[in-house]
Amino acid sequence: MTEPETGTTTGTSTVAAEPVLSMRGLSVDYLTDTSPVHAVDDVTLELHRGEILGLAGESGSGKSTLANAVARLLKPPALVTAGEVLYHPAGGGPVDVLRMSPKALRKFRWRELSVVFQSAMNSLNPVSTVGAQIDDTLRAHDTTLTAAQRRERAVELLRRVGISADRVRSYPHELSGGMRQRAAIAIALALNPEIIIMDEPTTALDVVVQRDILREISALRREYGFAVVFITHDLSLLLSMADRIAVMYAGQLVEVGAARDVHDVPSHPYTHGLLHSFPKLRGPREELLGIPGTPPDLRDLPPGCPFHPRCRFAVDACAELTPALLEVHSGQYAACLAHDPASYGAPVPTELSGEGSGR
Ligand SMILES: Nc1ncnc2c1ncn2[C@@H]1O[C@H](COP(=O)(O)OP(=O)(O)OP(=O)(O)O)[C@@H](O)[C@H]1O
After folding, report:
1. What's the ipTM?
2. Domain ABC transporter: where (predicted)?
3. Measuring CA to CA, which of 225, 234, 256, 320 is 20 to 30 A from 21?
4. Considering the domain boundaries, does residue 323 fall inside one?
5. What is the end-to-end Cα distance of the chain in Å, rounded?
6. 318 lies in which domain range?
């Protein structure tokens, strides 16, 4: 599979695309009593230093499994069946994450990579104050700090995520849902990691709180320079905050590109469908086309393109040939036969080609 290698658009400037993490041909199965569930299938993807990479796709498309594989948080019956995950430390050679020793892994998680899950209630300790939890994290991983320095850092971290200093002594149940997510983000930031994986961190929150937290994540990223993998089923949410977007369907990567390009001309019919599944916040009202049907059984994918039974652009060849992830526009990749004229045998639908879009 071709590796997407592009510049990252951050605001108005384009910065060099230096990888901080690369997944190569990564596959993960869940070994069930019947046949294996192919939850992640041959994913090749790079996270660039300092970028926000949005990972989108319907429920069950493999987003969390991919993130957990990268963070080495998979538990049986999940099994990495192929591929590698490389961490690229600044100024050093790549490190194979899947082969790290338990000691190296403990250091990697928190110092280099941390994770924020959807429900902070599940990741925060209910019997410990948020200040104590930041203190515990700092004490466990940075023995050079004194108690006073740790206290100071806890207050500072909470302040940075919008929680006032007097909340240091609050227990998780004393905080609102939004505050708990902020506290979980503060803990993830404690050791200044290079990579933060956020798995639906704001999904359970109301829209206003969600937008506030997303704005803060973007501001924190600018300040601290970490890279984010932001997982959500809501593609429209990513368009406002991500530099690049990767779209998964049935465990496979079907489109990768700069957020602006994916928004302006989605090149995969699935992305096109996702973009029309959510009402736009601005602009004229339009019909929600959505995506007919349901995702396939990951134990038994249809032949050819896994999306073809639901695809309004499908031709006969789509039931036979598996499309490769091809560059369809500078830095934008899609796995769809429509971009492979020799196989497709028909003109590329204008919805997917951007013809007339001015690009
Ligand atoms: N323990 C398990 N045993 C068997 N199959 C599993 C297990 N955990 C997850 N799966 C399956 O793996 C597939 C990918 O799940 P995953 O949670 O990674 O998707 P997702 O895109 O993150 O979905 P969601 O947004 O609902 O979390 C799904 O089909 C799911 O049913």
Report:
1. 0.98
2. 23-275
3. 234
4. yes
5. 26
6. 266-353
